[in-house]
């Protein structure tokens, strides 16, 4: 099995199941043109996230790590008419491009991109009592995933779904001695999730156009914002 084959199969799947979408394509094209790293979710992963959010009936979505807004557009497309999405991004230039991409997709009034370090912005969301969110996508710097999970829980309710991207990283996640601080961050995330009695969780390994990685899914069974 090779990267070439995973990419070819993604093309096959996407060709059949994902109709061409000009605003999603434009988000990617503009991101490449602006020199952003090509680390957004793949198209079929984006649709998978959107379908999860829709199955969840999510009206309020929180995203950590906007980049050019590609996953953001997918998630926003899952919202009902009165829904809203807040996305957090550290790099002002990325946030600016994401806002333009979201506006072109018709989501200027649905999505708020907040600029800053996600940990600071999350603290503010907690202080502002901005929760609860129905669906939370963690995709910012991997070093802080454990802290992001703690904050996400504070912004959750019973039934909130938390998805974390990049939790396998070519399988390096099983190495307890890895020198990679990103992988260490993901391992701390798993350990915290495993030790948290108020959630139930799983993770799925994935292959595709962006290599071998995985998603974690955490469902909150008891949150601080329960009725
Ligand atoms: N969710 C996007 C990809 C996000 S890539 C998609 O799939 O389309 C990760 C993003 O997290 C990058 O844009 C990076 O700038 C941002 N990031 C990294 N560290 C951060 C931090 N401490 N706070 C907020 N955002 C951060
Ligand atoms: C990378 C991939 C991601 O999906 C992400 O969110 C951050 C970084 C990467 O491959 O470096
Ligand atoms: Mg990611």
Overview of the molecule:
With 227 residues, the chain is an alpha/beta fold. Helices cover 42% and strands 20% of the residues. The chain contains 8 helices and 7 strands; from the N terminus they run αααβαβαβαβαβαββ. Strand 6 and strand 7 (211-220) form a beta hairpin. Helix 6 (118-127) runs parallel beside helix 7 (145-154). The longest helix has 15 residues, at 3-17. The model has no long low-confidence stretch (mean pLDDT 97). Bound molecules: S-adenosyl-L-homocysteine, 3,4-dihydroxybenzoic acid and magnesium ion. Magnesium ion is lined by residues 39, 139, 165-166. Residues 39, 139, 165-166 line the site of magnesium ion (MG).
Note the beta-strand portion: 15-25%
Task: Supply the helix-strand structural class.
Answer: alpha/beta
Low-confidence stretches: none
Radius of gyration: 17 Å
